[in-house]
Write a structure and sequence with these properties.
- With 320 residues, the chain is α+β, with helices and mostly antiparallel strands.
- It has one domain: Endonuclease/exonuclease/phosphatase (Deoxyribonuclease I, Chain A, 4-Layer Sandwich).
- Helix content is 21%, strand content 29%.
- A 6-stranded mixed β-sheet has the order 3-4-2-1-16-15, with helices on one face. The chain has a 6-stranded mixed β-sheet with strand order 5-8-9-10-14-11.
- Helix 1 (22-39) links the parallel strand 1 (4-15) and strand 2.
- The longest helix has 32 residues, at 177-208.
Length: 320
């Protein structure tokens, strides 16, 4: 039995493949594979996994992911993936994947199962009532119950909406300043609302087992003190003794290493691994692989890796 569990999260940023760009994809694989190998993960949460078609009228499949993992340590891992309810196939872009060394006992994708979608009534403009803006999550969250050493491990993979304005129709046009500010508000409702749904799902796991081992991993598009992260942690100050608080394990390293994205020179922590008290009690180590991370706003030319750094957290199989 393994004495250590290594859990990692990594936003691969549009992992895509096409026959016409096979050489570019091979270059991406040459950059990404050493990063995946360095994680040495037992459980790996991936975001932004695109899906492709072999034939024009065929169903989408995870071809790019299969090619990336082929022949490597994760090739034969158990998988949980997101699928479109209407087709049973992956979406074209931004799918979620959980890879696990150990069997996955249960998998679920949650998309407005615990919180409703709704229409936001935009403010009146020039005595006209604009059409309402639908508040719908961009993608589901992905859950896997994994038969890890020490007992069941609940893993939630999450990719919240980026804080960029959503398209909102106004009388002045989508590109107007009014449209942008209303779109920014809509984007915030989507990001914060899905964080709430994820937290409500965490509550159901605690209801079933107050000592559950739970990890919420992924790209939250929010720093540690922003609303989505605080919602997920339980709406309390970080690192409290609340038995239902999630602990942000990515903060347990030196401040100068505590970033997963660089934007216009700013070092930002957007990717996270949050753990329940029972899991955090067995924490051993956190690493953020951000050496040589490119600036997403200032980089010129093609970046074959990712603008996100990966995080890997190690646990004892059971608390000391």
């Amino acid at each position: 039995m393994n004495k250590v569990i290594r859990l990692a999260t990594f936003n691969l940023e549009h992992l895509d493949w096409s026959a016409s760009h096979a050489e570019d994809f091979a270059r991406r694989c040459a950059v990404l594979r050493p990063v995946l190998d360095a994680l040495d993960a037992d459980i790996l949460c991936l975001q932004e996994i695109d899906a492709q078609k072999i034939h024009k009228h065929g169903a989408r499949r995870y071809l790019a992911l299969d090619y990336l993992l082929e022949g490597g340590p994760y090739a034969n891992f158990h998988r949980a993936v997101t699928l479109r309810k209407e087709t049973g196939a992956p979406a074209d872009v931004h799918n979620l994947v959980i890879l696990a060394r150990w069997p996955i006992n249960e998998t679920r994708q949650i998309h407005h199962d615990l919180t409703p979608c709704w229409n936001w009534p935009a403010p009146r403009e020039d005595n006209d009532d604009p059409p309402p803006a639908p508040i719908v999550w961009d993608r589901p969250l992905l859950y896997a119950g994994i038969a890890a050493p020490g007992g069941l491990l609940h893993v939630i993979n999450l990719h919240l909406r980026a804080p960029r304005p959503a398209p909102v129709v106004t009388a002045r046009g989508i590109g107007s300043s009014r449209s942008r500010v209303e779109g920014q508000f809509v984007a915030a409702m989507k990001r914060d609302g899905q964080a709430l749904e994820a937290r409500l799902f965490v509550e159901t796991l605690f209801d079933a087992d107050p000592a559950a081992r739970i990890a919420v991993c992924g790209d939250l598009n929010a720093d540690i003190h922003e609303t989505p992260t605080r919602l997920l942690c339980g709406g309390r100050d970080l690192e409290t003794n609340d038995p239902r608080a999630l602990v942000p394990l990515e903060t347990r390293i030196a401040p100068e290493r505590r970033h997963t994205v660089i934007h216009a020179g700013r070092h930002i922590l957007l990717d996270h691994v949050l753990a329940s008290p029972a899991l955090a009690a067995s924490w051993r180590n956190t690493r953020i692989l951000n050496e040589g991370l490119a600036d997403e706003a200032l980089s010129e030319g093609t970046v074959y890796g990712s603008f996100h750094a990966s995080i890997v957290v190690s646990f004892s199989a059971s608390p000391d």
